[in-house]
Amino acid sequence: MHLCHDRGHRRRLRRMRRAHTGKRRHGRHQQPGEQRQRRQARGMRQSLEGQGTHAASVLRSARPLNAGPGSSLAAHDCRMNYRHAYHAGNFADVLKHCVLIALIEALQAKPKPLCYLDTHAGAGRYDLSGEAARKTAEADAGIGRLRALHGRLPLLDRYLDLVAAEGADHYPGSPRIAARLLRADDAAQLCELLPEEAAKLRALFRDDRRIHVHERDGYAAMKALLPPTQKRGLVLIDPPFEEQIDEYARIQTALDTALTRWPSGVYAVWYPIKLGRELHPFRRWLRGCAAKTVLDIELLTRPDTVPQRLNGAGIAVLNPPWRLDATLHPLLRLLATQLAADGERGTARLNWLKTEDGTAV
Q1: How many whole angstroms separate alpha carbon 102 and alpha carbon 98?
Q2: What is the pLDDT of residue 243?
C-alpha cells in the first residue's frame, strides 16, 4: 500500500514538473483556437513543400496565425519565398506567354503607342540548365514538349521563335517577351518587389530606354502608374499566389481601383488551378466587375480534383482585344493535347464571363 502510494506521488510530481516547464517555455497555455491554427499551418507547410508548381512550392516555413493586435497577420508582414527559376518554361508559362504574345500583337494592330505594365515581373530571364530548373524539371513537360512543333500554328511559331532567341539553355520571362515585341515608341513598366530579382531585371534592360524597372509592390504601382501616358496598353498581373485567398482579395481590390482610373485598359490575370470549385468566387467577382467584357482562358493538364498539386492554369482577360478568342482557340486545343500530364487527358476552355452587352454569362 505504501509503495503504491509512493509511486503515485512520484507520478504526480513528474506531471507537475512537466506542466511547470511548459508554462516557462511558452509563457502561457495555448488556447484551442491557437492549437488548431498551428496544426493548420503545419499541414499547409507539409502539403506545399516539394510540390514543384508555380503556386504550390513557395512556402518553406509557416508561422502560427494570430490575428490579434500587433501580430504578423494583422500587420501583413510576410516575406515572399517564391522563385520562378524553379518553374520557368512549365506548362503554365507556355499558356501565359502565348496569351501575352496574342494580346500585344492584337494591341499593335493600331499604330498608336502602347504601355505594358507587369506587376510581378521576376528576373526576366531564366537558366534552364541551372540547379533550380533541373531540380523540378518542369520545363521538360512544358516548352520541352513543343520545340519540335514549329510550323503547326503561327502563334505557336512566334512563341517558339522568341524562346529560341534566348539560346538553347535559357527561357524568357514575360518582361523579356514583351520587350522583344514592343515597338520603338512603346513602353514598359516592370515591377518586382524582391531586390535580387529586381537587380537582375535592371541588368537585363539597362540599355533599353523603353523599359522602366520599379522595385516596389506591383499592386500599389497600378494605382500610381495608371492610366499610362500612352492611354493604351496591357497590365499583366501574375502573382506567386503564396497566400491563395488573400491574393485574390488583393487582385480584386487592385482591379477595382485600376478600372476606375483606366476603364479602357486591357488586364490579364494569371491564376493557378488546383480544385476547380475554389475558383467560383473569383469568377463570380469577374462577372460583376466594371470591365466591359471578360474572357476566361483555362488549360488543365489533369483533372482539377486534387488540391495538393497544380492541375492547370488560367488567365482572365478583362477588356480583351477583338477576336482574341478566335486567335487562341486552335492553340489551346494543341496545348491541351501536347501538355497533358502523363496518362491524363488535357482540356482547354474559352469562357466569356461577361459579353459586349454587359451580360454576365
Answers
A1: 6
A2: 80
